[in-house]
């Protein structure tokens, strides 16, 4: 069921106001879900939008690609395809990371009590079941960092529920630490790469080619001077696009890539998320 005209108008007005202040916005469907990719972008056939750190441009004018659809461009927000989306929208969402923010999403009373005892005071926005605590700064997003607590920042969206109250403060280390997993001594966090049919041997490349590729990937990550997150993701994507389907990658290869990324300051959780996102992008 579509929203009444006045509600749709409020959503659009709020989106334009947020965009004017530098906050990237997108429409949400009922259930706090983003609009799905249009037929032209189904299965990321378009190559992905640039701000998803995926290869290739996407000229699609629709609010596709979930959080990556978020924009501050009023001509996009009021374009015909977006106007059609606003007619069905149930809420306005925004990309916290794109606005330089981190949202600590507290989903129940217990989580709120923990935050009041453990986190620095900052701007607070009431939600249906709890509170959003907003901090100035960007970090990797993560769900269920503790009971009833999610962190929404880079590559994630949050529902816009108003400006909130209180003074916005700088993202503290105690929040950053929520997404850091301490690996077991002497071990590197990695993920299992399922071998495909073929006995684990690369049917189209030699072992020397694979070794050279992994070494070059390590060097690419190690040599990154900026945009480390993007470099790690793109490197994982390149390795998987060449060897992800033939079964030649082992946990030892993945561990080498994770070790290089962690030496540049990436957390084990971010490495795992980047690897999984790269596999999803390639349909593995």
In short:
By secondary structure, this protein is of the alpha+beta class. It contains nine helices and ten strands. The strands form two sheets. Strands 4, 5, 6, 7, 8 and 10 form a six-stranded mixed beta sheet that branches. Strands 2-1-3-9 form a four-stranded antiparallel beta sheet.
Outline the structure in words:
The protein is of the alpha+beta class. Helices cover 36% and strands 14% of the residues. It is built from 9 helices and 10 strands. The strands form 2 sheets. Strands 4, 5, 6, 7, 8 and 10 form a 6-stranded mixed β-sheet that branches. Strands 2-1-3-9 form a 4-stranded antiparallel β-sheet. Strand 7 (142-146) and strand 8 form a beta hairpin. The longest helix is centred in the first third of the chain and has 16 residues, at 5-20. The radius of gyration is 21 Å and the shape is globular.
Globular, elongated, flat, extended or rod-shaped: what is the shape?
globular
- The residue-averaged pLDDT reads 81
Strands, count: 10
What is the chain-wise order of helices and strands? HEEHHEEHEEEEEEHHHHH
Q: What about the largest sheet?
A: 6 strands, mixed
Secondary structural class: alpha+beta
DSSP helix fraction: 25-40%
Key structural traits:
single chain; four-stranded antiparallel sheet; disordered N terminus; 9 helices; alpha+beta; 10 strands; six-stranded mixed sheet; 284 residues; 36% helix
What is the secondary structure topology, with strand pairs?
Layout: H1 5-20, E1 25-29, E2 33-34, H2 74-77, H3 80-88, E3 91-94, E4 101-106, H4 109-118, E5 123-126, E6 131-136, E7 142-146, E8 149-152, E9 158-159, E10 169-170, H5 173-176, H6 207-222, H7 228-243, H8 251-263, H9 268-282
Parallel strand pairs: 6-10
Antiparallel strand pairs: 1-2, 1-3, 3-9, 4-6, 4-8, 5-6, 7-8
Helix pairs in contact: 1-3, 6-7, 6-8, 7-9
